[in-house]
Amino acid sequence: MRALRLTAWGEAPAPTDVERPVPHGAEVLVRVEAAGLCRSDLHVIDGAPGALPYRLPFTLGHEVAGQVTALGPAADGVRAGDRVVLYGPWGCGSCARCAAGSDNYCDRRNTLAWHGAGLGRDGGMAEYLLVPSARHLVPIGDLPADQAAPLSDAGLTSYHAVTGLRHALGEGTTAVVIGVGGLGHLAVQALHATTASRVLAVDVREDALALADRSGADFGTLMRPDTARVLRARSGGVGADAVFDFVGAPQTLELATGVLRPGGELAVVGSGGGSLTVSKPGVLPPGFRLSLPFWGTRQELAAVVALAHSGALHVETERFPLSAAAEAIDRLRRGQVRGRTVLVPD
């Protein structure tokens, strides 16, 4: 079968012919229908030797949807023919967090040579994916694969961030989403679907603001020197109750902390190289609370799939055949992708 393999750090992944896996024990073989491509993949591809604990080579792809085709003799929980989406973060499988379906916060994460499918273990940018256990699979029914695959990271990560701050987003509150890309546009939808909050969106691109509008944002604005003032005015003059920063750059963190009201909460999802200096007293609003959400739980992925089935979540996608992965990666690097990139086996 064909697979997109990372064979050397800092070099482009190579389309490669490899043997189709055979499931043993509790393993499950999935025929891939769609695999998402995101900036986390670029981070892995561009990694310096030793920067990540992963052993080369391995197949990329952590956002995956497909159909179960074969099971190992000890596998249970799914049947051949089931259509599924992959729960991508794979932990140790034995700690309390993993047992509860929270592999994203595995207690032994720092000791593992992998972080999940396509992250040190073979992923789904291939014709088939071998999954170590059915506990990493969530049923999708008739949901289209190009919608389901991005839900496993873009949808789940956004939903997990929103869930963590939902307690602060009741009637009359304001939430700000900074960065309306592959994750941000789904955060806007999740906020619209699961909270009563007013949703304000910020980006540097007009087309991203148009995407925010289609996703249900109440207001969108370009990032400018006066953006904090504009957002405060839209919040009734008091500031935002919660800010979701899907960029994490110095400028966006400055905006995020500048627009929060006292007691406001900031979720930093993006990894854009920014940092915060915490001091008391200091420039941060009094009562400021910070979270650094990472991916999400298996139970939350099931909730995300349910939202997609209800029509509350819709992923804006650009599709490419797996054979055109190089073109898709180039477009992603150049910032030319609207929403989420999805690769489909030829």
From TrEMBL:
Reactions catalysed, as given in the entry: a primary alcohol + NAD(+) = an aldehyde + NADH + H(+); a secondary alcohol + NAD(+) = a ketone + NADH + H(+)
Keywords (A to Z) from UniProt: Metal-binding, Oxidoreductase, Zinc
CDD domains: arabinose_DH_like (cd05284)
Enzyme's top EC category: oxidoreductase
InterPro entries linked: ADH-like_C, ADH-like_N, ADH_Zn_CS, ER, GroES-like_sf, NAD(P)-bd_dom_sf
Entries under Pfam families matching the protein: ADH_N (PF08240), ADH_zinc_N (PF00107)
Domain of life: Bacteria
Cofactors that this protein relies on: Zn(2+)
GO terms assigned for molecular function: alcohol dehydrogenase (NAD+) activity; zinc ion binding
Entry's EC annotation: 1.1.1.1
Annotated ranges, domain Enoyl reductase (ER): 2-343
Stated family: Belongs to the zinc-containing alcohol dehydrogenase family.
Name of the molecule in the record: alcohol dehydrogenase
Provenance organism: Streptomyces violaceusniger (strain Tu 4113)
